[in-house]
Design a protein that fits this description.
One of its GO terms (molecular function) is (S)-2-hydroxyglutarate dehydrogenase activity. The protein has 7 helices and 11 strands. The chain is α+β, with helices and mostly antiparallel strands. α5 (172-183) packs across α6 (185-195). The model has no long low-confidence stretch (mean pLDDT 92). The structure holds flavin-adenine dinucleotide.
Length: 266
């Protein structure tokens, strides 16, 4: 068998999904506080006190789903874990308009079971553009969307973590290959051609990038599933890999079950 055709595979405009969710939350009396950076957390026997850069919020419980910063939020709450978030940037190209006809759906490779990364794939976006990628390279900053982005604090967090060195020694070859693909379009195209031999270097235009919040364990294992720990009055989602956006409603329901199971709702 060379491929599996899944005709019902599709894509949504996730910005619109998020806007609709926000609308429904507000209709039901919820408040959405944007630009409130959590700076400290205190869990007491009766309540939770969260200090942000725009004031203090009190409640009976909270859910930490801070993505690239989820490990730091857990640390603020004195939650002990053996994981660290390591940022991996995924860089994309876009298919030039004249070649978009080649991609009529989503085209994915069979993933390598040793890695929680999908590998280079074709994504036909809602507006008809086609993203090609991503690779997966260590990002020198948690929100490092550009190759030149750098944060000393973020790099120290990676380099002082023994899990990173265990991972690096285990997968040196794969890591170097990804770096090469990041700087050499020719090498990138070679992996694209495994899925679609007709694609040539000049068919690909520079595209966007994203940064994946990858939880890494002290023993060098890349966490490839959800990783959830809880405090007395909190749940901490320390790894939420793709397709966590697609699955967000189900994940939300699961979090409610967690709250009930561990009697966090009082
Ligand atoms: C390149 C790429 C492609 C992907 N493609 C898909 C896909 O096709 N389908 C899919 O389902 N998933 C996809 N994913 C995965 C998906 O984006 C994640 O699984 C999902 O976003 C995780 O959601 P989250 O709410 O846990 O974290 P995030 O979406 O990362 O949200 C974390 C939030 O916490 C906030 N935050 C951080 N620190 C603080 C702080 N101190 N105080 C207050 N707020 C804070 C951030 O501002 C952010 O809003 C992709 C990911 C990447 C990187």
């Amino acid at each position: 068998m060379k491929a599996i055709h899944v005709p019902m595979a599709g894509i949504v405009n996730y910005k619109k999904v998020a806007e609709k969710m926000a609308e429904l939350i507000q209709e039901k009396g919820g408040h959405i506080l944007l630009n409130h950076m959590v700076e400290s957390i205190t869990e007491t026997a009766d309540e939770v006190v969260i200090d942000t850069n725009h004031g203090t919020i009190k409640g009976s419980f909270y859910i930490n789903c801070a993505g690239l910063h989820s490990d730091r939020i857990a640390k603020l709450a004195n939650i002990k874990t053996d994981v660290r978030i390591v940022p991996f940037r995924g860089e994309y190209y876009q298919l030039k308009p004249e070649k978009r006809y080649l991609v009529k759906n989503l085209i994915y490779p069979v993933p390598n079971p040793n890695f929680p990364f999908l590998g280079v794939h074709f994504t036909r976006m809602i507006d008809g553009t086609v993203d090609v990628g991503p690779n997966a390279v260590l990002s020198f900053k948690r929100e490092g969307y550009l190759k030149t982005d750098f944060s000393l604090r973020d790099m120290k967090d990676v380099l002082y973590f023994k899990g990173f060195w265990k991972l690096a020694s285990q997968y040196m070859k794969e890591g170097v290959e990804e770096m090469v693909r990041s700087f050499s379009k020719r090498q990138f195209v070679k992996s694209v051609q495994k899925l679609m031999p007709d694609i040539q270097e000049n068919d690909l235009l520079p595209g966007p990038s994203g940064v994946r919040a990858q939880a890494l364990k002290e023993d060098g294992t890349l966490v490839d599933d959800f990783y959830i720990v809880h405090g007395n009055r909190s749940i901490h989602i320390l790894n939420a890999p793709s397709p966590a956006a697609t699955a967000s409603i189900e994940i939300g329901k699961e979090m409610i079950r967690h709250l009930e199971k561990f009697r966090l709702v009082v």
